[in-house]
Amino acid sequence: MARAKKTEQAMPVDELEGMLTRLKLTAIRDQLDTLLDQAARADMTLREALTMLCAAEVARKDERRIQMGMSIAKFPCVRMLEGFEFEAQPSIDPKLVRELATSRWVANGDTVLLLGPPGVGKTHLAVALGREAILRGYSTLLRAHAEGRLEEKLTHLAKPKLLVIDELGYLPFEANAAHLFFQLVSRRYERGATLLTSNRSVAEWGGVFGDAVVATAILDRLLHHSHVVTIRGDSYRLKAKRKSGLVRDNTALAAAT
Ligand code: ADP
Ligand code: MG
């Protein structure tokens, strides 16, 4: 088998760089000398060297795609599953979250509801699961309900493969907005996946939407193919504070929550 180092000089470098630019193989172009050195030092076969070059290009393209996906998604913070302490939140089944992390539910256009009181990690998990979806190439968008823009761009919100709506229920819907939300859910039904976080239980959603009939119609679609994670327990923030002595007892905890 021919060795990579023997062919290194076969073509003028500037011509090669020109072609790599034209083919948009910019990672190979930018690291050409280093990569070729590496191939020569490891005494790689041509096939091995080509594999290494392609791997470098694929890694850069993946990284770009993920960065782009993350900036389009507009996550409010950077959170990963690796940073989530399951021991701190025993009401969550780690197996279910690991299953959700495969993004199969996104492919299927399912719904995930993350329910629970403030501070228990709903947004953290929503962002982390959204990130997993982006890693797998699914277009993802996050909107906080409090942004009050759900009604603005129905077509825009109907598009992404995964729509994350954070903190449903902190603000009540106005009558018109509840109808628009119903339209959004209908359009996405069985096509786009939706992840919702809420501090209200599903039973309280009639109050959130201000209309029991609309709420039922929305829930009917959302719950049809759904995975519900109900988180019980103390706020992670307050737990951390309590550990550091800032909040002493449960009275303070209750008052702060
Ligand atoms: P929620 O959306 O339920 O109100 P957040 O997801 O915003 O709560 O969590 C509050 C803060 O605590 C965030 O900084 C989050 O990363 C952190 N947090 C919550 N639960 C955990 C956990 N189990 N492990 C690690 N960090 C957590
Ligand atoms: Mg939150």
Query: What is the radius of gyration computed over CA atoms, rounded to a whole number of angstroms?
Result: 24 Å
How are strands sequenced across the largest beta sheet?
A: 2-3-4-1-5
Q: Specify the CATH homologous superfamily of the largest domain.
A: P-loop containing nucleotide triphosphate hydrolases
Bound ligand species: adenosine-5'-diphosphate, magnesium ion
Q: Could you report the average pLDDT, rounded to the nearest whole number? A: 87
- Helicity range: 40-55%
Question: Quick one: how many beta strands?
Answer: 5
Explain what the structure shows.
The protein is of the alpha/beta class and 257 residues long. The protein folds into 2 domains: 4-64, no CATH class; 74-256, P-loop containing nucleotide triphosphate hydrolases (Rossmann fold), CATH 3.40.50. Helix content is 53%, strand content 11%. The chain has 14 helices and 5 strands. The protein has helices at residues 4-7, 13-22, 26-30, 32-41, 46-73, 94-101, 104-107, 122-135, 154-158, 175-188, 205-209, 212-224, 236-243, 250-256; strands at residues 111-115, 140-144, 162-168, 193-198, 226-230. It has a 5-stranded parallel beta sheet. Strand 3, helix 10 (175-188) and strand 4 form a beta-alpha-beta unit. Helix 10 (175-188) packs parallel to helix 12 (212-224). It is elongated, with a radius of gyration of 24 Å. The N and C termini lie far apart (69 Å). Mean pLDDT is 87; it is low at 249-257. The structure holds adenosine-5'-diphosphate and magnesium ion (MG). Magnesium ion is lined by residues 122-123, 166-167, 197.
